[in-house]
Amino acid sequence: MDAQTKDSGHVQSRRAWRRFGLLVLILLLAAGAYLGWERGFREQPQPAWVFESAESRFKYGSIGAEHDAGVPYWIFYVLPRVFPEKFRQDGRIAPGGYAALGVAWEEGQELPVGFTKKTIGFPRVANNCAACHTTTYRLSADAKPVFVTAGAGHTVNIQNFFRLLIDCAKDPRFDADILMAEINRVTRLDIIDSLLYRFLVIPITKKRLLEREAQFAWLYRQDFPDWGRGRDDAMNLTKYFMIRAPMDDTFGPTDIPAIWNLGKFHWDKGHRLNYAGDSHDARSVVIDSALGVLGAAPADKADFLEQVQWLQDYLTRKQPPKFPLPVDASRAAAGKPLFDAHCAACHASARTGTRIPLAEVGTDRGRLDSWNKGAAIQANQTVAAMGITRRGLVEDDLEGYRIPFLDGLWLRAPYLHNGSVPTLRDLLEPAAKRPTVFWRGYDLLDPVKVGFVTDGDEARRVGTRMDTGEKGGGKQGHEFGTGLSAADKDALVEYLKTL
Amino acid sequence: MPTRAVLPPARWKRRFLILVALTVVLPATIVIWLLGRFGGDSPVDYADPVEHFKYGSTGGEHEMGFPYWIWRALPEVCGHLLPGKGYPSIGMLYEKNPDGSLKDLPVGTSKRRYQGVDRVFVNCAVCHTSTVRAAPDTPPLLVSGMPAALFNMKQFEEFFFNCAADPKFAQEYLIPEIQRQGVGLDLLDRYLVYPLAIGIMRDRVLALKGRFEWVYRQKDWGPGRVDTFNSAKVIFNFPMDHLDPREFDAPADFPSIWLQRPRREPRAMELHWDGNNTDMTERNKSAAFGTGTTPPTIDLARIKRVEDWILDAEPPAFTSLFPVDAALAARGAPIYKEYCAACHGASGRDFSGDRVGRVTPLAEIGTDRRRLDSYTYTLAVNQATLYAGYPWRFTQFHKTNGYANMPLDGIWLRGPYLHNGSVPSLRDLLEPAARRPAVFWRGYDVLDPVKVGFVSDQPEAGGRKFFRFDTSQPGNGNGGHEGRAYGTELSAADKAALVEFLKTF
Q1: Residue A435 within a domain
Q2: Nearest C-alpha of chain B: how many angstroms from A489?
Q3: Are B175 and B190 in contact (CB under 8 A)?
């Protein structure tokens, strides 16, 4: 072998080594990229049981909120253990973890109704519509709760849920050492997941939750009362969260509504949705509400619109439950003509589903002031920019509230848009004689006055205090039928049980 | 260009070998030694299932284990925090070795070497094993699987928290005590492992103290009882100070855990006093939290051995200590059949009966309600998150509105009676509540063969003070399970016959 060939042999083998090294490097990078995708982003379908029935899908099926609004599962899991003092209600510590927030939670379920678990790289928890739109009620204090999907979530304290996540993120104990110590007590993450949690998932979650703080500043205003259980300052949520409007002084908390039987709304008959008739049709409301839950533009638009269609179909078909106790037929029959004479003109007529001027109904105006034409235009633009077409929000000055349909009325307490009147029977009293202070969110049914039990030891312990003298909580207005005799009122209430 | 001196190959070789020795062989040796010394995770095992039940591991030592020598030294160093001498003073039982000396650990504790330290913690037997005697001067018979009627769990917990907070919980006190016990700790243990372990253990116990603080504010449970489901709330770190006060002071008797199979087959019974779960494996894993296990550290293989054993383990017969009057018992049989069998099973081995293992509503049974109220719907749904991520996540816990009707196998060893142990004997239980003892003493292992239950009318015996059980205290109510249907209106002769029949269970 002469020197030259030896040299070229060297060069060749060096090249081969270099090529080999490069290959190894590429393979390593590819493996790293795959692992990163697998553990960080790979989307896995939810387990089959979620889709076993329409009910279970509505309760536990993901609508895609895990992408942006999702909280990593193990962080969500240990928050109640690390920060029990931050689970609060009316300023008091409320024991019981997430259950203390009044969520509907079925025995044996890993998560409350409306909380979805989906793996996108790692398991995450987010919400769907059922978190707010599931009613629980009980017929006796020692009975199990009955769950009614698409009903009003009168027990859930969503303001405190929002605050909770931010409060935890702000706490210096929200750090990898402390959270990992608690997580290691409940599960064994493999080395990769442990490292991911410690160095990425926990810090990023903290950062993202803190980013919400500015948008949610109005949740912490001392000059506003707490929403309490079952209420939602919905239009301000839209203003500050979706269109990033600057904070103003309006406050319009309203009852979380029942959303069953959407088929009753006919756009062409002038029916509008939301409390002030702010939205044109059911589809628009489903889209806008779902976007609120997602907290961002959908990651997969086609999938999102399919979900919306499914929800709309489900909610169109879903009917309210019948009153679960015997109704006195003869008394109800006596109530029917009273209903026809005093209620039907608005609640069972062509006017139903359309707007009634505020001057005519006279209820609290806080909710009206929390929304405006400009906001509607902006919100419509925001959604349009996502490439989603819908009839959308009404771009107009709205000076009145939509007259509600009364289907399933017995399960929609407390009454009036702002939930300021505990029972139907109370609503038939003049405003001055309606309760001034009561407790919301206890789920024991009051079958006589029709509504939930709103006072007494248990109601005070479980519920949140509602003071109708506070901002947005006025119980005035809708003084219709309030001059009837007591017997007539009772008969009318009996009839209302049948709706 | 200056030329360097070329070293002979031999020196290169030597340098290379030294280099290898320094960079590879030495560190590798150290690592292997360290792994051997501190790696490992090896429990002490027992081939015999009963020995395993008494001394085998559930895996609780991983998270909660006390270093063995600290466990041994604590009763001496913190003796002032115990009611008497050593662990026996809080009702722990020591068996004897074949040579007559006491075993080094009491029944219901297990040992595991983990992270280079022998650790000790409790297992199932600490709450489910006890002794019984025919007379004060006869030797005790140890019965595995019976309620630990002597073990005072509240004192046990308080002892460790108080001791950890005591100035004497320090190496200056503990290490000399360990050495006094005649142990030659090696240098590493003496100067590194144990000093470190003492600090770590104190921090751990004190960190948990906040979560267990509520225990101090509870009325004394006395021996043989535990506030099971308030303890379960600690798993979730519920802020105990803010719970509804009606949930507290809910101690209940430890149950017997023999003959589990007929509780599962042919029909799964409602387990726990309030019948909150029908799934035996969940019930077992739930109870295992009490032995310090966590989902990642539980030793399922070893717990399985206990689970298998309790399926068919049998209680000893009453006749192993006392005779039964067969004629009288035969007279009691039809009375039992008429009054008791529908809820409590056809016999001590045949658990058939429509209402056996099912919940009787509180309004009907009328016994003390605190244990029922301590188990809340809120707790039930939270329990459904336990073992999340594992195929055996809990799914069966549920809130009930009463107490479950229990089979009566080995009932003679299960006194005091009712879920809260508020009635000292079977004979007393057949009296209307107003005539049951309002005050009695728990914690004696001498059996009263006439009334059937442990002797309960003496505040102390043999130098040992018993626990004064006051039925007027919250959670201790002795009402309920009374009225014609419950046999409290039978004649005295019928009651005696019925009690005699129950001795055959």
Answers
A1: no
A2: 35
A3: yes
**Same domain, yes or no: A22 and A157:** no
CA angle in degrees (0–180, nearest 5) for A176-B391-A99:
60
Angle B267-B398-B261 from CA coordinates, rounded to 5°: 25
Which B residues 46-65 touch A at CB under 8 Å? 63
- Asked if A90 and A23 sit in the same domain, the reply is no
Using the Cβ of A45 and the Cβ atoms of chain B, whether some distance falls under 8 Å is answered with: no
DSSP secondary structure code for residue B102 in this structure: B
Q: Do B399 and A77 touch (CB under 8 A)?
A: no
Nearest residue on chain A to B211, alpha-carbon basis: A81
Output DSSP code: residue B21.
Answer: I
Residue-level pLDDT, tens digit, chain A, 499 residues: 455 555 666 777 888 888 999 999 999 999 989 988 888 889 999 999 999 999 999 999 999 999 988 999 999 999 999 999 999 999 999 999 999 999 999 999 999 999 999 999 999 999 999 999 999 999 999 999 999 999 999 999 999 999 999 999 999 999 999 999 999 999 999 999 999 999 999 999 999 999 888 888 899 999 999 999 999 999 999 999 888 899 999 999 999 999 999 999 999 999 999 999 999 999 999 999 999 999 889 999 999 999 999 999 999 999 999 999 999 999 999 999 999 999 999 999 999 999 999 999 999 999 999 999 999 999 999 999 999 999 999 999 999 999 999 999 999 999 999 999 999 999 999 999 999 999 999 999 999 999 999 999 999 999 999 999 999 999 999 999 999 999 999 999 999 999 9
Look up residue A109 and give its two tokens.
Answer: 């379920």
Nearest CA to A445 out of A437, A435, A455, A453 is that of A453
Query: A72 and A8, same structural domain?
Result: no
Q: How many CB atoms lie within 10 A of CB A234?
A: 26
**Using a CB-CB distance cutoff of 8 angstroms, which residues of chain B are in contact with residue A99?**
377-378, 381-382
CA-to-CA distance for A167 and A56, rounded, in angstroms? 31
Instruction: Give the residue from A267, A277, A307 showing the smallest Cα distance to A391.
Output: A267
Tell me the pLDDT tens digit for each residue of B297-349: 999 999 999 999 999 999 999 999 999 999 999 999 999 999 999 999 999 99
- Under 8 Å between Cβ of B419 and B272: no
Question: B204 and chain A: CB distance < 8 Å anywhere?
Answer: no
ipTM tops the 0.90 cut = yes
In a domain, A114, yes or no: yes
Residue B101 at interface with chain A, using a CB cutoff of 8 Å: no
CB count, 10 Å around CB of A128? 25
Q: Which residues of A touch B394 (CB under 8 A)?
A: 108
B 234-273: CB under 8 A from A: 236-244
Closest CA–CA distance from residue B398 to any residue of chain A (Å)? 6
Tell whether A24 and A127 lie within a shared domain: no
Helix/strand/coil for A80: helix
Domain containing A65 equals 44-326+355-403
A106 in contact with B, Cβ within 8 Å? yes
Is A145 within 8 Å of B378 when comparing Cβ atoms?
A: no
A410 in a domain, yes or no? no
Same domain, A26 and A147: no
Q: Measured between alpha carbons, how far apart are the two ends of chain B, in Å?
A: 104
pTM (predicted TM-score): 0.94
Tokens 């405190």 correspond to A160
Do residue B296 and residue A96 have CB atoms under 8 angstroms apart?
Answer: no
Which among B239, B394, B397 has CB closest to A95? Answer: B239
Inside any domain, residue A465: no
Q: Which two tokens stand for residue A194?
A: 């442990």
| Chain B residues closer than 8 Å to A87 by CB | 239
Residue B70 near residue B201, CB atoms below 8 Å? yes
